[in-house]
Amino acid sequence: MTPTSYKVVCIPEFKKYPSTEFDIEIFSYCLGEWNTYQVSCPQQVIWDYGLRKNLVISNGVTYWIEGRNRIIAYDVTDNNIKNGGHGCRLINLPEKKGDDKKYYECLGESEGFVSYSRCENGELSVWLLEEDYLSRGWVWRLVHNIKIKDMILAENCDSWFMDKLASGEMVNLDTLAFNPVDPNVLILAYPISIIFAYNIRTRLLKVFVSYHHYLFVTYGAVPPLVLTPWPTTL
């Protein structure tokens, strides 16, 4: 199937921050050109350098994490832009429990739902963003919470990682991505060493890829790109 139209959204680093305005660039297939729009916010926002991992587009709305424990939501649909809709919404993320810097977080989408995961103090939590029709706002519904030490380790887990959990040492896992077609599955990582598939329903933590944690050295890592399956014609 060939798409009849599409848009490409580019969010340049904010020229100054904190600020109540920033630019967003949108390429429209129908127009065949890029346009820059100045977006206004109800409150000051700051730039978050984790943007490449924490951005998702769902139902024509672009969501990304802002640097003050909030997400910015901007509607990129034609109807919104034609009507002069260059404002954005700010949605608070769930409150942090511990040290403001010692945690991993991920914003993604699964089966059409905007999802958010955070791992801090050895505990993994997952929320879904839902509309609150009474308040005409948005709320986060907690769908999963578990201590890392309580996860069920598959037989293919490295012995050194099993020993680390058994020792009682606090371990945080980084959520790399949400499975686009199965909301029960997350892709997690123990930084620089192991990439896991974790099933919320069964609590099973299974190894995808394992590196020797003493020999594998890197200065940075690029999060995986998760592709939603495209419909096919037979």
TrEMBL record:
Domain F-box protein At3g26010-like beta-propeller span(s) in chain numbering: 5-149
Q: What is the lineage of its organism?
A: Eukaryota, Viridiplantae, Streptophyta, Embryophyta, Tracheophyta
Task: Please give the name of this protein.
Answer: F-box protein At3g26010-like beta-propeller domain-containing protein
| InterPro entries registered for this protein in UniProt | At3g26010-like, Beta-prop_At3g26010-like
Q: Which Pfam families match?
A: b-prop_At3g26010-like
